[in-house]
Amino acid sequence: MTRVVRVGDVLIGGGNPVVVQSMTNTRTSDVPATVEQVRRLIRAGCEIVRVAVPDMEAAQAIREIKREVSVPIVADIHYDHRLALLALDAGADKLRLNPGNIRDPQKIREVAQAAAERGVPIRVGVNAGSVDKRFLKNGEVTPEGLVEAALWEIQLLEGVGFHDIVISLKAHEVPLTVEANRLIAKEVDYPLHLGITEPGPGMPGTVRSAVGIGILLSEGIGDTIRVSLPGDPVREVEVAWEILKALELRERGPVFVTCPTCGRAGIDVAGIAEEVRRALSDIKKPLSIAIMGCPVNGLGEAKRADYAILGGQGYGTIYAHGEVVIPKVPEKRLAEELVTLVLREVNGI
Amino acid sequence: MTRVVRVGDVLIGGGNPVVVQSMTNTRTSDVPATVEQVRRLIRAGCEIVRVAVPDMEAAQAIREIKREVSVPIVADIHYDHRLALLALDAGADKLRLNPGNIRDPQKIREVAQAAAERGVPIRVGVNAGSVDKRFLKNGEVTPEGLVEAALWEIQLLEGVGFHDIVISLKAHEVPLTVEANRLIAKEVDYPLHLGITEPGPGMPGTVRSAVGIGILLSEGIGDTIRVSLPGDPVREVEVAWEILKALELRERGPVFVTCPTCGRAGIDVAGIAEEVRRALSDIKKPLSIAIMGCPVNGLGEAKRADYAILGGQGYGTIYAHGEVVIPKVPEKRLAEELVTLVLREVNGI
User: Are strands B287-292 and A19-23 parallel, antiparallel or unpaired?
Assistant: First the structure.
């Protein structure tokens, strides 16, 4: 069991639900663009948002961003500890420091004292791509080296009485990330922030993140997660939620049960599922929806799901709560009929 | 360590590399369409292909399909054991039987004897959606119930001296699937075929599959995998390979290291990565390609990767094998220059 760290009004660790994070990719000093992206992230289920702080303008923008949105804001700091001090002044709810590039113990202690005065936690975020040379083993990044880099920075923070710490150890490599987190989980009781860093674009990045984060969470390791994907960060939040839903750690909106379709399928399962998924994307209530192409597994899954379509040849039967509600609907109207039924029940009409 | 089962010329189990499978969704009796899809699956890296056998025409089509393609073909049988006998006659390299719907012990034994004569293995494929009522606990599918359903069918096969068996226990639910496979792995030494069944469309299905299959493989459980997704089955093979690559169990083609981009990024990482990924999709040689938006982690990752782009503001530096090879390339030409470099080296020109 990890200790609890408070970020704004969000609790991380200590058995609290695993928190979903993401990071904006707007220029932070472009306040309207950043605020708009933060709002989109919140709608998708993001609970903590990080912003890059590469310069003074970005640090100062945090004050204005926080006036517009209610989610806790984390300032991502590299190289220059003065940006951390400015971000704290601007009201950042958490700092992320990278021990690979703020190496002066005095500067780190100065930031810790300023954070402590404001009750703001610090994430010690070690990345394989920027780990300090002191922690390489024969020039290689190792799980032990990532752990040592984190422990070195933690000791500096603890040395000034600062314990409001979250830790992340990230690498592109899944086995390296998994092993490093297993090791640090045995060493400290600070909450762990999980992620696979730079995991690749689109599908490959999604798969690597799901495998790495999934393995650690299944072992009870990890208190907050951030999926890193290039492009629109809303995608990161969607993938993060699917990982948590897959492990039955948290619930949010529909879970779909769709057969992969084979030579038996009598309806376009993929097309119908996508249409239903889009139409119900704003629903937060947890429910299961099965869309199955034939009776082999379809009969069983239709009865187990909250709502279902069981395909015949060119038509389908609609189920709700294990019972047939509309026996024979033409394929073209299946998605629409199911969506209408679900929305009516969910909205209590 | 599981025992080894031979499917055509492919070995499953016993420490052999984890085998990638998929299933066609054409009408199997439409031989030209099925052959074309099988060929696309092979090009994507599929090593065993399953086809649905819902009728006699499908069973007989296996003979013609096998004349056209070299990959082992598995006949997927439900309800009617005579289709299994026909598929064996037609040259199927493996049978998949579902204990949920061929319940007559005498029929199962008859199929086993016919398979044994031809040296053809049988997969006992238990699915939560079609598990026989005898194996439900208070009407619910449980890990123990899935295991019992498999053991019941295995005992029938073993009773006639048949041991050429692969087992799969699949559910839509990841924890149920994971737990069932952990249990059966302790009970038997037959190779295990892993998958999350009916995991949902697109991204959700990809995430659920990666989490479930990833957890089991990371524990050393699983000898062959099939990702189940609606739509084009080539996608299943691509996701399966990414799972194996993420766990460093197998290698195939490029692994991408891409930063998620934040307010620091000076180039369009997602766009460049996608362009490079497409241009190199036919490469089978394992290599790592980093595409990074700024120097924070970019400098380290560029040096660690086989090939890299390290972004500046509107331009980038191209690295190969840890060294700068082209110092300053305008953003628009980055993808093209990198692709040219990689293709030249890979093709030895």
Answer: unpaired
Interface of B with A in 313-332 (CB under 8 A): none
Res A98 pLDDT > 70 = yes
Q: What is the pLDDT of residues A232-256, one digit of tens each?
A: 999 999 999 999 999 999 999 999 9
Please tell me the distance from the alpha carbon of residue B237 to that of residue B229, in angstroms, as a whole number: 10
Q: What percent of chain A has pLDDT over 70?
A: 100
Question: Model-level pTM greater than 0.90?
Answer: yes
Please name the residues in contact with B77: beta carbons below 8 A apart, sequence gap of 6 or more.
B53, B83, B84, B87, B95, B96, B97, B98, B102
Here the ipTM equals: 0.93
Q: Which of residues 221-280 of B touch A (CB under 8 A)?
A: 228-231, 233, 236, 238-239, 242-243, 245-248, 255-265, 269-270, 273-274, 277
Say yes or no for a CB contact (<8 Å) between A200 and B173: no
Over residues A1-18, the pLDDT tens digits come to 899 999 999 999 999 999
- Interface check for A283 against chain B (CB to CB < 8 A): the answer is no
Structure confidence at residue A263 (pLDDT)? 77
* Of A219, A42, A232, residue with least CA distance to B203: A232
- Residue A326 identity (one-letter amino acid): I
Q: Which residue does chain B place closest to A265, by CA atoms?
A: B25
Q: What is the DSSP letter of A29?
A: T
